[in-house]
Structures are given as C-alpha cells and as structure tokens.
Amino acid sequence: MANTATSMEAMIHNITPEARQFIEEWNNSHDYIIAHTSGSTGKPKEIRLLKSDMRLSAEATCRYFGIGPESRLVLPLSPGYIAGKMMIVRALISGAELWIEEPSMSPLKRDYGIVGLLPVVPSQVTELLQSPYITGVRNLIVGGGALDPETEQKLAACHLKAYATYGMTETCSHVALRDITAGDEHFHALPGISFKTDERECLVIEAPHYSFRSLTTNDTVELIDNSRFRWKGRYDNVINSGGVKLHPEEIEKKLSRFIDRPFYIAGRPSKLWGEEAVLYIEGCDIDRDYIMEKARSVLDRYSVPKDVIAIPNFSRTDSGKIKRL
C-alpha cells in the first residue's frame, strides 16, 4: 500500500507533500499551526490556530458523525485550507482510516467501500452525483459556498446524509450544520456552541471551551433560538435601496433556478435609490430580456435587478470562490 503512514494510530493513505507538511506541523512542539483565511471577503491573512481548538472542533465532529477507529474517511480537498487540515486532524484523534485524493472536480475516484465522512465544495457536487461510488458515502458535508436549490434536491434524493456547513478558518472549520437531506433551512449548532446576534442582526458565535470564547461575524441571520439560525447573507453585501435592505444571497438563491452559469448580485450607487441591485453574470452571450423576465416572476419589485452586466471571466480566489466587485 503505497504512501501509507501511521500517526497516532491513524492509517493515512496516499499522503501528498502538502498533507505530510501539515502532519509534521501538527506533531511539532508548537501549540499552534499556521493557517490562512479564504480571501473571499478580502485579502487572505495569516492566522495562528491553537491545536487545542482544532482538537475540540475535531472531537465535536467525530462525536456528531460517530467517527472512530473503525471508520473510513476520504479527503478530496487541499490540506492547505482549513477544511483539509481538519479532516486530517479528525483522523489523527479518532484513529480512523483516511484516504487522500488529489483535489479535482471528481471527489470520489474509486470504490472506498463505506465512507463515514466526505467533505466537498459546491463545484465538486455535480460530478459526485454522477459517481457510481456515491452509494458508499454515509455522510457528506458541503462547505465553502452555497448550493443552488436544484442541486440540494438531487442530494436529498440520494441514500446518504448531506449537510451544509457553517464556519470559518477562525473557528477551525464548521460550528453548525444544516441537514440538506431533510430539507432543513436552519443551521444547528454543534455540541458546545451557541448563538446570539448583535445590533446589526449579525451572528455571534459563543464557544466558551475555545480560546476565542466569543466571535462576532459579518453574517446576517434570522436567529431561531440559541442553537439555530437561518443564514441570510453577508452584512458587507447588504444593499440599502430606497430604505429597503436587500440581501444579495437570498436574491441569488431564487434566481439560481433558471440561471445556469456563475453570477452574483451586488449594489452600485444610484441617484434615485441611493443604491440599486445589479446582476453580474459570467459570459458574453447573455439574454438580458429572458433574465429580467424571469427575475420579475420570482422576485418582489424591490429585489429585481436594475441592470444585467456580462463579464467574460470572473476573478476568483485560490479556493475557487467568486470575488465580487
């Protein structure tokens, strides 16, 4: 079995240089590891994550999904990002078997038998749904961006448990999960985590056992109770149009039913409204009349974009997230 290593009783297969570097960093004498934020809301920054926090996060996920020494995990994401690092930590602390794949659009390249946990990003889901090996996946977690409703429905029809994750590098991966399979629209806190909101209606993560204790985010939410919330969008992205607050991510979810290429909603200055919503779409051959007709059919009059602007190629972060103008 090539490129196989045992570390803290975990069997890790196909170790890449990036994964090996992280394992060496995890086993060194420092109490922290170096990580970088995704850069989706600004320039990526270097941060230090305490290994004790990463261990707490990994233990919570392992308990939630019942991961132990008998489990098999698959990692099709780069260990250079927090999602990849945390899958390795989960294997190390649980003793689970971990198979590492080179990151690609096809996140399940072979039959691994029963897979206890598989993490993916939205761009990998389409090919995953076509994989003959998906029937072996027991739990799927999707992070790094939102899925469109149609893709969520396809995942819900599979014989696996699929979850959307909420978290960030600073929280050592996810702190809440939303059950896609059950059609749930609320994120539920992992054990040891609770929520509240600030005066902006932005989420505040309460984590008394972690070193950061409390973390205020820029995500606007509808708080259901201290363990559940519905995500609405980024506070940074909110468009104040004529006194009406528009959440681009909510508009995008409705428009994604009929727009089959990358797009996003953003605000621009308006003499009449202060700000107005504009739809930016990737490509050149755009049918603006069709898009506007469909938008008027699914959106209220305040949310309908005032313009459609085609951009040949969007700028993206290293992890594939679109950089909004």
UniProtKB/TrEMBL annotation:
GO terms for biological process: fatty acid metabolic process. SUPFAM superfamilies: Acetyl-CoA synthetase-like. InterPro entries: AMP-bd_C_sf (IPR045851), AMP-binding_CS (IPR020845), AMP-dep_synth/lig_dom (IPR000873), ANL_N_sf (IPR042099). Keywords: Ligase. It holds the Pfam family AMP-binding. It comes from the Bacteria. GO terms for molecular function: medium-chain fatty acid-CoA ligase activity. Residues 23-179 form the AMP-dependent synthetase/ligase domain. Belongs to the ATP-dependent AMP-binding enzyme family. This is AMP-dependent synthetase. It comes from Muribaculum gordoncarteri.
